[in-house]
Write a structure and sequence with these properties.
Length: 124
């Protein structure tokens, strides 16, 4: 059985200061989120590496998979749970987890963390 790992690679054009994958609620980049969760992952036996590579366009991969593809699925689940149709199902005027316009435009730190953990678990 292969050891659990989180291998994050940020490919970007020369001169890019930070990834465009930034949490809309906290302003943290995906690299900052990885560094925040690194001690917990390593304590659980997960190997963590973060690298940068020069490329023509920006891409962030986790364990070889494009992180944005994983995040799209995470966001779909989030959007379903927060959708107006769910409020109607619950017969509520306001869903307990109300929509946030900032989230509609990007990913929260929670979504970034969830995407990273799904990649570690091999559920990408």
């Amino acid at each position: 059985m292969e050891a659990a790992r989180l291998d994050l690679v940020w490919r970007h054009p020369p001169g890019a200061a930070q990834s465009r994958l930034v949490a809309v609620d906290t302003g943290r980049t995906v690299q900052e989120v990885v560094e925040e969760i690194r001690p917990t992952l390593e304590a659980a036996g997960v190997g963590v590496t973060v690298r940068e590579e020069a490329a023509d366009r920006e891409e962030v991969t986790v364990n070889g998979a494009p992180l944005e593809e994983i995040l799209v699925r995470v966001k779909e689940g989030h959007d379903y749970c927060h959708a107006r149709s769910r409020r109607e199902e619950m017969e509520a005027r306001r869903h307990p987890l109300d929509e946030d316009e900032r989230i509609a435009a990007g990913y929260t730190e929670f979504m970034l963390r969830k995407g990273l953990l799904l990649a570690v678990e091999g559920e990408d």
